[in-house]
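[READ THE FOLD]
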Amino acid sequence: MKTSINTYSFGRVRNAAGDPLTMPEMADHARAFGFDAIEFVGLCIPEGMDTDLPGFAEYMKKYCANIGLGISAYTVGADFLAPGNVDRLKKEVEIAAALGAPLMRHDITFAAPEGKTYFDLIPQFAKDITEITEYARTLGVKTCTENHGYFSQDSDRVTALCKAVNNDNFGLLVDFGNFMCADQISTEAVKEAAPYAIHVHAKDFKYVSKEESPEPPAGYFNTRAGNHIMGCALGDGVVDVRKCVGIMKAQNYDGYITVEYEGPFGDPVEEIKKGLRFLKSCF
């Protein structure tokens, strides 16, 4: 297994001038911290750089290669119930290819129309996903979706979607922590989802039940059932990251595991480094 970090994790990190990091600076930090690769959550062209998005993708591909840093994935938002979603995601696939990312992760949707369930919508999702992933295949990119966004989050939902798509160019991005947003026990959910995994996020949360506190404490947000979780460094929360890694190893997963850090407090640089050390100890 190899380590990666996504650019979202650098949200609270600042450079020497006190400004948010540019994406080249994020890549420099990832390399300096000891990660094998970086996962780009969208692309943001630095101020003053005269290029378009495909050009910047090619720039970052070369930049990462020059500093000896791999690119694990390209992550974008999506809503398969929105008009024009398929065509827009095909354009994002082209960005992923220019970036040299081996796979692109996209969302599904965040709520069902009135009177519909997630499972009612799977045939429509599967049709559109197939069109996108077959286009991605022509560009050498795999596609995947993540247990993410409260609605397309439960292990039974995302695995049912994968079974319906039934395409070797499409799979799951299994996020260890995100199952908690749907009030699932991470290890049980990961065990169900692992056979469909083509990419992995390692994330940890602290947890306070709604019985302990009706309202979320500072820094926490609500799960679907109204419990409260807060991002933290790997190993500091209630997600059994070590066991989840073991489940992936037992499934013969040998790809990247991306650290996703979203803690609201503390020094984010030290928290990210701490999480990387913990993840490596799990290997």
Observations:
- The two ends are 7 Å apart (CA to CA).
- The chain has one domain: 2-282.
